[in-house]
Amino acid sequence: VPLPPPAPARPSPLPIIPSSSQAEEPLSPTPQQAPLPHGLHTGGVSSPSIAIHGPREPQPPDTADSSPNHATAAGAGAGGASEASLHLSASFGGPSHVRQVSRGESFSSKDKGEKDKEKKEKKEKKDEKWRRMYRGRIQRVLCNMYTASELLEQYSSLNYMGFYKIWKKRDKLCGVERLAEDIMRVREQPFKKLDRVHRLQKKCSDLYRLITDDKTSDHFKIQQEMLKELSKHVPGQDRLFFFLGACMVLLLDIVVMCYMEPTNPDYTLDEVLANFPIFRMVLSIILVNWGIGACMHLLEHYRVNYRFMLDIDPKCQVAPSHFFLVAAIQTTSWIVIFGCYLADLKFLNFGPHNLYFLYPVVLIAVQVAIAFLPSDTFRRKYRWEIVECVGYCFYAAVWPFVTVTFVQNIVGDVLTSMAKPLADLEYTVCYYSTGLYHRETVTCSGVDFWLKPLIVATPYYIRLMQCISRFLEADDAKRRTAHAANTGKYCAGILVVICTSIPWHEYGLSIYVSRLVWVFTYIFATIYMFFWDVYMDWGLAFDPDNYLRPQRMYPPWLYYSISLVNLFGRLSWAMNLMPIEILDNERLNSNLITLWVSTMEILRRTLWALIRLENEHLTNSSRYRAMLWVPPLLGAESGHVTEVLEGNPIKSIGGGKKGKDKDKDQRKISMPRIATMG
Q1: Nearest Cα residue to 338 out of 408, 404, 258
Q2: How far apart, in whole angstroms, are the C-alpha atoms of residue 537 and residue 57?
Q3: Which of 163, 579, 643, 669 has the fewest CB atoms within 10 Å, i.e. the most exposed one?
């Protein structure tokens, strides 16, 4: 059989035997060719249909290279390896190494396909991530445009309302009836034509629905979704969570240190308690910041327009997140400084020294510095306005013939909840007036008897003088009666301070009689104040059959919960009289109870402000405004919507409606009619 020249390919690992169609007789072994294994049939090299049984015997390298028949077989095997292996595997089952070669080739192609698929999936995920990012940016831009258009519409309504009020007052004073004629001319002015604004709002809603694949056609629902999307992006949220996590870890370290045995032989618990009122005073101020942030957040969530009622500058963009962040930084600094003080005093971390007085001083300095940190939103003029408001409250206490605003009323009520921190302030003044550092509790004999009650009773006196000022301004008997009753409430608070400050045992009264005097004055003041909170400040319980108001902006459960917390906070004074033993040390137990009572009072005042501002928003109960209508707070997630109907008094729609009725009621009408009081 003529053999072709050897191919340059790699020799095949399989022995290729000529088939019987090309040669009738088997090949005889030659010296150049190794004998075939037993059982193999020979034939021509042109046909790949061969039968192989058993593995090939090893050959020497020189013999394999020098054999032309072997080279021919190798070349043929190299040229048709794939076809031969498939034929062998399919026809006879083939040896195991034949199937492994074929399987390896398929595995390599399969791995390559999987890698390409993974690359494609990664690219698609990356593209989707970028698409989501840009889609979110476009959504925020649309939300901002929609909010700006609502502000513009609200600005137009406020200007229209101003013209209406001025001309109505003119007709009343001058005895003319030109209001309808002048109002018609105002309606024709360019600032009252809001067609372009409405078209812009519709375009923003349509684009937002197109981006979010929302199939609904209700523009009010689209508006609510846009406002929710805008409220998700809270600036400074990452920093807030960072400081909260740091506070939790550091607070746990302080708890562990309290249970560890001291290594300072001169360490005493009385030394820590001598400085603890200073730390407690600063902590109470920090809790007030937390309360302000929480109150602002809930008011904005339920769309109570506290900015309008408190006369806050419309340019002021201070958000609840700012107060949360400042309070978190203050809390972290307080825990760090108090922990360093406790560790240094208990374990002598910095060696023996007498500079422990620096810790409270540094704490006060750091808190003041944090309060006046520069900010792009909470600017310096806004902070000074707060200071001026507090100063004006003190001025009204000296001269009652001044006009009291609603914000001054709220500030005065907040000051009445700071009785414990004000008592700690008096202790701080006494502490540093007698030296820089003390190892025992300080008492200023001859001064504490009258100075502490005076400082604690000052907020009640401020509110009492504000009520007198409002009494003098009232123009009807009903309002005068209400302000007189409110004056009696703060007189009851001053009576409690006096009765708990007089040393009755020095006047011959036993300890039991003095405690009875305390209890009766506390009970009288608690019932008086709680009734006033519920009935007058919140406008609840007017109907004997229903505790809630018909008009409300909060869910019903919130009113009941806040009422219970308010009652519990009003009764927290009883903890000072009850024999409660949290720890074995009596002085430590007393300091912890004072801290708990102060914290509960700040929490109670925060929740009180929620319903107080909501009631003022809906009913104008204190008559601080000349009109009942309050513009809705924009940028909130959901909640109350004020319905403004032309030709009818203002109608406020509260919670409690669901489904289609709620969607039908929560509509927006551009023309507000002023509902005047009186």
Answers
A1: 258
A2: 106
A3: 579
Q: Identify the helix (H) or strand (E) that includes residue 499.
A: helix 477-501
Q: Which two tokens stand for residue 435?
A: 């030296």
Task: Report how far residue 194's alpha carbon sits from residue 178's, in angstroms, rounded to the nearest whole number.
Answer: 25
- What's the one-letter identity of residue 148? A
Alpha-carbon distances, residue 290 vs 320, 508, 576, 599 (angstroms): 9, 45, 25, 11
How far apart are alpha carbons 618 and 554 in whole angstroms? 12
DSSP-derived pairing of the beta strands 651-653 and 641-643: antiparallel
Three-class secondary structure of residue 653 per DSSP: strand
In angstroms, the Cα distances linking 79 to 45, 105, 346 are 12, 16, 88
| CB 48 within 8 Å of CB 87 | yes
End-to-end CA distance of the chain: 127
Say which residue the tokens 């105002």 belong to: 186
Number of H helices, E strands in the chain: 21, 2
Q: Which helix (H) or strand (E) holds 244?
A: helix 237-259
The pair of structure tokens assigned to 660 is 């289609």
Q: Read off the pLDDT of residues 277-332 as tens digits, 9 standing for 90 and up.
A: 999 999 999 999 999 999 999 998 888 999 989 988 888 888 888 899 899 999 99
Q: What is the pLDDT of residues 211-257, one digit of tens each?
A: 777 666 555 566 666 666 555 555 566 778 888 888 899 999 999 99
CB atoms within 10 A of CB 579: 5
Q: Which DSSP category does 40 fall into?
A: P
- Residue 426, CA distances (Å) to 67, 143, 449 in order: 114, 50, 11
Structure tokens at 544: 């004997």
Are the CB atoms for 38 and 19 separated by under 8 Å?
A: no
Tokens of 627: 């009109």
Q: Which two three-digit tokens encode residue 422?
A: 């004000």
Tokens 């209400």, located at residue: 482
580: CB partners within 8 A, 6+ apart: 589, 593
Strands (E) located in 340-385: none
Q: Which of 132, 64, 48 is nearest to 98 (CA)?
A: 48
Task: Please give the Cα distance from 45 to 18 (Å, whole number).
Answer: 4
Question: What would the mean pLDDT of 46-73 be, rounded to a whole number?
Answer: 42
Query: Is the separation of the CB atoms in 46 and 83 below 8 Å?
Result: no
Calculate what percentage of the chain has a pLDDT beyond 90.
28
Q: How far apart are alpha carbons 469 and 461 in whole angstroms? A: 12
Q: If 0-12 CB within 10 Å is exposed, 13-18 middle and 19+ buried, where does residue 206 land?
A: middle
The single-letter code of the amino acid at 168 is K
Q: Can you give the pTM of this predicted structure?
A: 0.66
- Calculate the CA 478 to chain-centre distance: 43
What whole-number distance in Å separates Cα of residue 606 and Cα of residue 561? Answer: 13
Closest CA relative to residue 518, chosen from 536, 484, 540, 495? 495
